[in-house]
Structure formats: C-alpha cells, structure tokens
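Worked example 2:
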Amino acid sequence: IKKGETLDAIAKEAGLEVSATPAFKRNESPQGLPESAVAQAFTLPAGGASAAAAQGNAGRVVFAVTDITAAPKLSDDARKQLASELQGEQRTDMLSQYLASLQSELGVSIDQNQLVRVLGLDQTSQ
C-alpha cells in the first residue's frame, strides 16, 4: 500500500477479498473491523492505511481510510455546556491527584470496606 498499490491488487494477489464498511463513528465497531482497527483508523489521514489483529486473533485486517467526515460545529449552548463539564472533570482530576499525593506523602490509607459500610453502600448486608 505504501508503494502505491491498491488494496484490491494486494488482496487479489493474496487470494483474498476486499470489503468496505459504511461510515462509522469513533465509538462504533462495524462488523468485521476490530476495535483496535477503529482506533487506528481515527489516527490516519484520508488515504492512510494500516493493519490490526483480526477479531479473535485470526490473522490480520488491512484497512484504508477513504473519507473523513468532520463533526458538525457545536452550538453556543452546547459549547458552553461542554466547557463547563470539562472544567468540572479537570477540577475532579486535580483534586484526586492532590489527595493521592497527600495520602502517599503522609502514609494515609483508606479501608474501602469500612468506607462502603459507613456510607451505607454495602450491598451484602441488605
């Protein structure tokens, strides 16, 4: 493929067939295309190609990206909501990192079983 050969020519030479998938999103896995190939596909430019282990490790899947559809622009309200959610996630992440650092530095540990019990989240005693 990198030498300019088409998938059709390579498949024919190997006695295999080429199949196409309909357009798909980052969180979808079309039939016959493993998740690892989907993840790789979203790192490639249009015309880019790669390979991944086939489902069940039954060989390799060779694929090429033929077209890329840009995501639609967000409305102002959606953009504000997304920014707010990202800020909240960032605060939570920073607080978690800070607490983990303090716990490590001060030698603090949390007994998860007792915490679950105290918070009333213990499903086994109900």
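The beta strands are 49-53, 60-64. DSSP finds four helices and two strands in the chain.
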